[in-house]
Amino acid sequence: MSKKQKSKSRPVPFADAVGPALAASADFELAGVDPSSTPGYTGDKASGTRDLALVGRELGELQERFYAASRAGAPAKVLLILQAMDTAGKGGIVRHVIGAVDPQGVQLSAFKAPTAAEAKRDFLWRINRALPQAGFIGVFDRSHYEDVLIHKVRGLSPAEEIERRYGAINDFEAQLAVKDTTVIKVMLHISKDEQRARLAERLERADKHWKFNPADIDEREVWDEYMDAYQTAIRRTHTPEAPWFVVPANRKWYARLAVATLLAQTLKGIDPQWPAADFDVEEQQRRLAAS
Fold it and tell me: Cα(97)–Cα(89) distance, rounded to whole angstroms?
């Protein structure tokens, strides 16, 4: 058996088989989640950093198999949706978790405010155009959920339209499941005090000024409204086909380990297999030796 054929996977370092994050439910209360907690994990930052490296290696091997299997026709795709208030660590997840896998098997999309052309279309139009291909891990840095969160808080759409969108999202995500896409929806849950500290650091450091947006302070003025909008969106769109996971994000190391573990568990559940050779291996070995 070759090195590539040997499984390098290890048990993920969480006691809870469901994963490190809190799976949201129909009666979910966001206020009941402590942003500084580390559910499912009893280690500290040092052990969390070591375990992230272990899970990262496991994730890298699983993702390679996942991508390889698609070259032989396996239809599975994975879509990781990251939603959060600013500074909660979406960029860190992309660098430290998604960065552990081969970039050729990743499709990353960062959704900003829609362009004038996009705003004329249905809110899911641009989302559909960014969905991952077979064998790819798609990563959405923000997503279609902006069109219910911001619109609810800022009154950009009437209440009946927002209600329609909850249903449209559920239908859309159910169809993704039918089309062999596993959806992982993550809310990185940061506290208002921790966000203040992270924004203050951006203002104190010249190398962080480019990341600061004065509008972030404006958004803090409606923090409670955003928390209510998140809770409503999670309750209305938490489904078996596309569950929500609320990941406490005050501790960056924990959030990264949590999301890495969720991804690893998802790929282990898919159980991608190395594709069989479509040629005679022994014959090619003889040819190579003689060349």
Answer: 11
Q: Which two tokens stand for residue 169?
A: 């999202």
Alpha helices in the chain (DSSP H): 45-71, 90-96, 116-119, 125-128, 146-154, 159-178, 192-204, 215-220, 223-237, 252-270, 281-290
Closest CA to 274 of 59, 78, 7: 7
Question: In tens digits, what is the pLDDT along the chain, a chain of 291 residues?
Answer: 333 443 333 334 555 444 556 777 778 899 999 999 999 898 999 999 999 999 999 999 999 999 999 999 999 999 999 999 999 999 999 999 999 999 999 999 999 999 999 999 999 999 999 999 999 999 999 999 999 999 999 999 999 999 999 999 999 999 999 999 999 999 999 999 999 999 999 999 999 999 999 999 999 999 999 999 999 999 999 999 999 999 999 999 999 999 999 999 999 999 999 999 999 999 999 999 999
The CB density around residue 76, as the number of other CB atoms within 10 Å, is 19
> Three-class SS of residue 192?
helix
Cα-to-chain-centroid distance, residue 168: 21
Q: What amino acid occupies position 177?
A: A
Tokens representing 55 are 């899970």
Structure letter (DSSP) for residue 110: E
